Amino acid sequence: MKKSKFISPIPLEERKRAFDVKHRQLERRRQELEARIKQEETEARREAQTAEAKRRAKKFAKKLAYDTKYIYVAGGHFKNEALGFCTVFNLGRSTKVRTTRLVKYDDSDKLLYLDIIQRKDRDMSKRAKVFVYIHGGGWIGGAPATREAFTSKVAEAGYFVASLWYGDGPRYSHPKMIENVYKAFAWLKAHAEDYNIDTDEIFVGGESAGGHLSAMAGAISSNPQYRAGFDLDERARDQRIAGLVLNCGVYDLEKAVSTGFKNIGIYTQSYCGGTSVAELDEKTRKEISPIYWVTEDFPPTYAISAENDKLAVLTFDLVKKLYDLGVYVEHYHGEGKWAVHAFAVSQGFEISREAMRGTVNFLRNRCDMLSAQEKK
To answer: What pTM value is reported for the model?
Structure first.
């Protein structure tokens, strides 16, 4: 049985006209949508460009604000260093030592240097213990020559002192400073025979920013997990540290920012290459603060703090952690009107000399312990 063909009751021409009308309607709708999409894309690009321009402007403004404040603070810091050099910084400097200045310790960066200080009457046939000093200065200033009251007294006590210039921020930002410290360690190891020094285990110390880097070195030496995060000179990567002398150091940079210490924001920002601590990612915020990496293997420590120092709480935090972990620690807390930030740098005051006596006794006791261990 044949199927009948369907025949539309609407004539073909009429159907075509209806189709063309609908087609034009759909095409107009498509064109309208296309125009709307292009308009929205143009507006989105304009908004993105505006947002990018605002972001760049904000970034520029922040950098300008940082640069302006840095110049102001660094200028004031330079004047204070110069004034301190001429007055209190080198008060009480020992006359029993000789100094070799501006010894380059990194062939790839001729700006980096160390000063060597040792007794004039040193018996060169005996191997000397090494004390590496890392100066403070808010990570933007300071120099070995302005810390010789302290370093010369340590040298007078019989130690081979290497006082480092490790670079200023923001040019030498984290982690360059501590990596430069390890380059100095490597140089000392490479020249151990030349100076007849014992670099198997060295002492490290410093004040303020130098205390921070000293504690960082202590954590690196005793915590493999922390050490793995740095690009250290292979010759010194596993350098052992016999003891630390930490004078009013900064061990938690995030907490330091909230202490009210003058210019601490610009100091820490300079250490971080111009980025404020609050803007760092969590990993970096933790990495820049050695207190987070202290373990029971942290080196024995002589910690100095001051009554009139807004950063003193950071030393108390560190000492408490060392006590809790069972790490050997001696704590000297200076009191009185001269107990200011990093007071032990100068040796012109009794409180400073008392801190120095504690330092020397700590170093000698540690040396005696090391000698006893070697004889076993």
So the answer is: 0.83
